[in-house]
Fold this protein.
Amino acid sequence: MIRHSPVIGALTFAFLLPVSCAAQAASSSGQASPMITGTVTYRVRMALPPNAAIDVRLEDVSRADAPAAVVAENIFAASGKQVPIPYQLPYSTNDIQPGHRYQVRAQIIVEDKLLFVTTTAYPVLTNGAPSSVNLVLQPVGGGPSASTSGNEGNAQKVGSTPLFGTTWRLTELNGKPPAQATGKNFAQLVLDESQNRYSGSSGCNRVTGTIELKGDSLNFGAGASTMMACPEPLMTQEQSFTKMLQSVTGYRINSRTLELLAGDKAVAKFKAAKPTQPAQ
């Protein structure tokens, strides 16, 4: 199983050994190592430079209260190839548990700059999921612009409200408007980049927890909340709000609107709250 540092300066060794240690051990014993296969591509009109690196990972995403655990990883050089680029991701069957959920993620890096990343969940191996998946990557904010229309492209468009430090007030949860707030206890979130944490309210109790952001990929990890009892429908909303956070795999910002995504589906929408005016 390959486990490489994401620091690009350490990729030389990965380029020389683009197959996992588990695969090498299996080869020496005369046994074929199982692997996940497919292609990596993106929908932007640009050629990859020869020094581009492709990082493909197999992750265990079974625990909703913790970040995804990397099970296997393969980092290899594009070596002048252009998308779609085939990949092979060897793994050990000893690391796979039938009752767990697994996903494949990928990213493309040039020197120390992250250009493309998967924003859609790609399940594999268990629960009827395949062992071959074709990955479509999206440009990272500040990277190349997508040549297609619709919802594809950068997670955060130029001129949009920043993801971090903004008070994001809930406007839609699973396609429905939020419950009427009690006083000024609105359902909202604030993401802290320096601490990799979120805080806010479900509209009932205060909530806080960890976040993991990689390119356009966003995950909400372990969290905690106060234990105040609230009237309906706020208690039901709180349960839906918590489940929504656990399902998030990415985000999208357009102007003052934040959408939290589960795969390619928007599970919640937020509006940037107006900043408090300074006292005169």
Remarks:
- DSSP finds three helices and 16 strands in the chain.
